Amino acid sequence: MIRAATLDDVATIRAMIRELAAYERAVEQARATDEQLREALFGEHPAAFALIAEDDETGEAVGFALWFPRFSTWTGTRGMHLEDLYVRPHARGGGHGKALLASLATVCRRNGYERFEWWVLAWNEPTVDFYKSLGVDFLDEWRVCRLSGEPLRELAAQAPPVLDQTPAL
């Protein structure tokens, strides 16, 4: 079963985020707290949304998908960015990942989102193969860019004062 996440799922989502980070060899980078996730998913202005995959027999949460809307200036429409998709190892192969993706595709169709995009680590061959089986296009000509930490602070320090008037979201 796939369902929308609730406040009661926050600790489980955080645990699965850490499991995913361990699988991706970056557990030290998974620093989100329950409080941060509660605010991001269920606060006054949610930054993201989540679905939970449950085992039909046990009701155990065996996976999750966390996503947020994005916007394309080329199409003039919103799209979806899938931040995390994770199915616990003991539940893999049971159709939970595909069910999560299909549910997200339904959200896209229902909301008029023309694009559904996410990243995958190049070394994660089982997941790459799974995505290929769904007909996913891999955009090799695009590179992911990330600015964080001290370089982000240094660039922000160079901003002209007028940019400081941008509203906080």
From TrEMBL:
<dbReference type="Pfam" id="PF00583">
    <property type="entry name" value="Acetyltransf_1"/>
</dbReference>
<protein>
    <submittedName>
        <fullName>GNAT family N-acetyltransferase</fullName>
    </submittedName>
</protein>
<keyword id="KW-0808">Transferase</keyword>
<dbReference type="InterPro" id="IPR000182">
    <property type="entry name" value="GNAT_dom"/>
</dbReference>
<feature type="coiled-coil region">
    <location>
        <begin position="13"/>
        <end position="40"/>
    </location>
</feature>
<dbReference type="InterPro" id="IPR016181">
    <property type="entry name" value="Acyl_CoA_acyltransferase"/>
</dbReference>
<keyword id="KW-0012">Acyltransferase</keyword>
<feature type="domain" description="N-acetyltransferase">
    <location>
        <begin position="1"/>
        <end position="157"/>
    </location>
</feature>
<keyword id="KW-0175">Coiled coil</keyword>
<dbReference type="InterPro" id="IPR051016">
    <property type="entry name" value="Diverse_Substrate_AcTransf"/>
</dbReference>
